[in-house]
Design brief:
The chain is an alpha+beta fold. The chain is 28% helix and 34% strand. The chain has 3 helices and 7 strands; from the N terminus they run ββααβββββα. The chain has helices at 31-42, 49-53, 101-117; strands at residues 9-14, 20-23, 55-57, 60-67, 71-76, 79-85, 89-95. It has a 7-stranded antiparallel sheet with strand order 2-1-7-6-5-4-3, sandwiched between helices. β4 and β5 (71-76) form a beta hairpin. The two termini are 16 Å apart.
């Protein structure tokens, strides 16, 4: 994820959010933060809680841009987070203010598609 330059920090969790499979140095997503992400994927309300309240990643509160059963996008100022759920993993990626949100989303969504295609 980091090699394309659109993402500066990332972490990979299992779909339950109980195990960190990989993480960039200094990028810590708390158990409560990833639990809220997992809950947002299961929320089928017309207006999800995460849409009205936002969410936190690595201690930062983000405004929700998109939330569905596969993806969660959030923004704080000019930087943001793209989260994608696959069959076995949750990808959490942070992009800096120098990167366009669409470019970051494309990078993470493509990796998600690849992982789904190979059974992850």
């Amino acid at each position: 994820m980091l090699t394309q330059g659109n993402i500066d920090k990332a972490a990979i969790f299992n779909t339950e959010g109980t195990s960190v499979w990989a993480s960039s140095a200094g990028f810590t997503v708390s158990p409560a933060e990833i639990k809220a992400v997992v809950t947002s994927f299961a929320d089928n309300s017309d207006v999800k809680k995460v849409q009205s309240e936002g969410f936190h990643i690595a201690g930062e509160k983000l405004f929700t841009l998109k939330s569905d059963d596969r993806s969660l996008y959030g923004k704080k100022g000019k930087e943001g987070v793209v989260i994608v759920k696959t069959q076995q993993a949750i990808l959490v990626a942070h992009y800096p203010e120098t990167v366009q949100p669409g470019a970051a989303a494309n990078t993470v969504e493509q990796l998600g598609d690849y992982l789904i295609g190979v059974g992850y």
